[in-house]
Amino acid sequence: MDILGAEGARALVRAAAEADPDSIAAGQRMRREFPPDLAAAALTQVALRRRARAKLPQAERLFLTPHGLEQATRWPVAQWRAELFRDAGVSALWDLGCGLGVDAMAFAEAGLRVCAVEADPTTAAFARANLQGTTAEVITGLAEEVELPPGAGVFLDPARRTARGRTWDVSQFTPPWSLVEHHLDGDWHTCVKLGPGLPKELIPDDVAAVWVSVAGDVVEVSLWNFLDPGPRAVVMRGGRVHTLLPGAEPLPVGELGEWIHEPDNAVIRAGLVAEAAPHAHLLAASVAYLTSDAPLASPFATDYKVLEVLENDTATLRHWVKAHRVGSLEIKRRAIDVDPAVLRRQLRPRGENHATLILARTTEGARAVVVERQG
């Protein structure tokens, strides 16, 4: 593949000098020095690497594809996963459907012997280049044709995209869902990475389901057959990993206090709202806003100081916004039938001040709560 050779390396250096690798002018300049296909491939790689910077710190040296980058694991999550395998005593791991090799890279860095398997020849070639200098081996082939020894580590990240887009039709997954079930039920240390919107009816009762968020963004749910069964939330903030396990009693509903607490979305997806704030109470039944008279200062929830409580009607809110010269307005809501973007236009924010509104059901009915975020 030309982009992986010496001429490709020269084209990548040249393309990296372009301020906008997607522009027509960049393409014209590149084609003066390189064949059209190589010029286009180098510009595409540079554009993808720039997009990948926030996700992968080593992006500038990786070979990427659009779909591969979309599915690639964020680096802190890949490292966290590799540590769990290592801590479970796994020494050899098979990455079945390795994509671009990001997780395999983390497994190898954690000291595991890695065999990465990828069906698509181009993606496998990119993975091989990305894993150069590590102990990982890349095989081009089908994950379902690999025979594994008992007790080995297995990682699967099934592709969930068809020609029509993302799908939760498991019959469309690659590798197939039957392979996922086979390895989760077998004698292997198995982890399966899936999208955070996984329908809960697809989660077997005897596995751990771990929802992971990075800086507030829920990025995946993973299924593990060698962790204690049940839901977990893993929240990564400020370079630290925080894990929340089940076990709290359900929270009661109570009156609005001096603080509102918004659980991390990984906590909500895992159904661990009570575990995130066992001494708080709910603003309303089945709504993931909590309240108390003190900040939680917890990695599992964001604290908002209550400044003012308003009637939840457009005229009242428009008057408040105007009176307080609010030009930058954040609107948050749960279980309230309103489009924040539409409401923001109706409130006509103008001025030099910022405000945050939380629209929520309370014991007194629907209210608009003016809050100030802490931390």
TrEMBL record:
It comes from the Bacteria. CDD domains: AdoMet_MTases. Pfam families: Thump_like. The keyword rRNA-binding does not apply. Keywords: Methyltransferase, Transferase. GO terms for molecular function: methyltransferase activity. This is Class I SAM-dependent methyltransferase. It comes from Arachnia propionica.
